[in-house]
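Q: What changes when BIS(adenosine)-5'-pentaphosphate is included in the input?
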Amino acid sequence: MRIIMLGPPGAGKGTQAVKLAERLGVPHISTGDILRHEVAKKTKLGQAAHKYMAAGKLVPDDLVIEMTLKRLKAPDARKGFILDGYPRTLPQAQALDKAAKIDAVVNLFLDPEDLVKRSTGRWVCPNCDAVYHVLTNPPAKRGVCDKCGSALVQREDDTEKVVRARIRTYDDLTEPLAAHYRAKGILRDVYASGHIEEVHQRILEALRK
Ligand code: AP5
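A: The predicted holo structure follows.
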């Protein structure tokens, strides 16, 4: 299965992508995670991307398209993938159309104020990319990753101001992609409110259609 997770910041794309990837035995490919590692390593790509990410803007298409298509060519992605955070613009979608046949696009939607609450309460593991929420999905030990034991951090772009900027960026540039995939008959709208497991079951149900 080749699946795209679409949806605004904080809707739960990453959380659900991890569960789906485990269930289907395919890699979870998050362009946000890849870019954050490039920023942390201060690579050329990371240095070019950082100012856009910190401001809640999109990293330029040419950089992201090259990075993502290269990742999709890796051997582990041959059997399928869950793509999280890509595409975000029409040129990115068109580049992907040429590179791979997508089976389904899960389009998560949620009230904007819930998006803000989810993002500003998020803590992430800078080592293994596990995602937690201070209230709804806390780690067993405060500030420590359940999976690898690293110290959790808050993302630089998870302040309320930047989250609201990211939601605006999404509404202007990414939300229109839903129409692109609806026209292909592969869009599956899923309401992202409720417990993580409840949303996961809704996604599985939507993928059966
Ligand atoms: P990226 O990392 O992709 O961020 P995003 O799309 O803004 O999405 P988020 O990671 O914020 O949210 P999510 O939907 O994955 O939610 P999560 O599961 O974490 O991108 C970051 C930046 O990189 C972009 O702004 C851009 O600059 C750049 N970038 C990346 N890709 C790009 C591209 N293709 N082109 C150009 N630029 C690109 O959940 C959120 C929180 O809610 C967590 O705390 C979680 O524990 C909690 N939660 C999840 N589900 C539930 C639930 N059901 N109930 C309660 N809490 C829940």
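Observations recorded in class: The pocket of BIS(adenosine)-5'-pentaphosphate is lined by residues 7, 9-15, 31-32, 35, 52-53, 56-59, 64, 85-86, 88, 92, 118-119, 121-122, 131-133, 136-137, 157, 166, 194-196, 199 (CB under 6 Å).
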